[in-house]
Amino acid sequence: MKLLSWNVRGLGKPRARSRLHATLRDVRPSVIFLMETKLQAGEMLRVRQRWGFQNGIEVGSRGRSGGLCLAWRVDCDVTLRSYSERHIDVIISRDAEERCWRFTGFYGAPEENLRAESWALLRQLNDSPEIPWMVLGDFNEILYTREKQGGRLRLQRQMDAFQTAIDDCGLSDIGYSGRWFTWEKGKFSLTNIRERLDRGIANGGWWEMFPLFSLSHLEDSLSDHCPLLLNTGSDSNGPRQAHFRFEAAWLVEDSCEQEVIKLWNESVGLVPDRLACVNRGLNQWFRRLRCSQKISTAMLKERLEMLVEQDPTDEVLGDIMDTRLALNLEIDKTELYWEQRARANWLRHGDQNSAFFHRFASERKRRNRITSLNSMQGIRGEKELEIHTIARDYFTDIFSSSHPVDFSRILEGIRPRHSDE
């Protein structure tokens, strides 16, 4: 699930709405939390519905300041707990099998003298510590002096008050990837100020529930705040190029051999080029096949349900037997597909597949995934191409000799010998 949090600094102008809509199309979040919309509730309702978010909660602005919106798509189950001018608190779940968790969109007071009220609100919201809890938004405060560059120094007591409130609630900062600051002011170096005012904080239950999460600071020119994209499944690097792997399920398909022959005859070039063509063709063929198998399985189940409701004549019983055989064959193909991915023989022929097994079969891939690497110069790379480059440079360096040795002096002390033969 992806959640986008953003202090948009006003959506009254069509250009601002257009820019935000473009960002939503790019990252496709399931849930969005917007701050400082500067719109009344009814107007914000119409705007987010045009973006495809039919469900949501709006807190109208006061004049030309404030305004919150939490909106979600139809595939999310969201229950409202509470809201105010500074927060929207909900319970989220995606499906019946997913454990519920709590999300609070938080907007800290911009005024320094009202900051204590924000921390009091945060403590007040800490009423269910047993529920996994994530708080995301613009807190209008930093935790450490290193989180600010330029301008006057932040008072230590202000940062301590924020840290104490977080500690009292059993929350901790979840970190980030991307640029270090989330807010910027000033176009010249002498007046430029950068601060990390936006962040995510979560309790231990949420960390355990989503061990592969990621929080990214995105780039955008709509607001002086950058968008925060929370991904609970850690797929921030996007799709990766799949390696060729032989599928055991191919062997039970009668058309497999003919497909290989056809792809080989249609390919041109050297053997590696022709193998690459066969690889791509087989993967495309199998994806089409998997899709048709799902449709075929559903149709066979419907036909079987219809047949068993009819009178048990010889013809009907024969059709039932044929349908069951065909359905079992399709199920066996699916079982074989998931058994190969498990890398452990958990399935026995004829066993029932389960959603739990599907999750387990993919766990190894998630656990072994590399999301970032640091180069030898200390530069962090998170994109797939950057990770590949850093890994290649590292192994090239360790397997290359920078100071070749003249071995002739070493071999001078060795007397050559050879046998009579």
From TrEMBL:
GO terms for molecular function: catalytic activity. Residues 4-199 form the Endonuclease/exonuclease/phosphatase domain. InterPro entries: Endo/exonu/phosph_ase_sf, Endo/exonuclease/phosphatase. This is Endonuclease/exonuclease/phosphatase domain-containing protein. It comes from Hibiscus trionum (Flower of an hour).
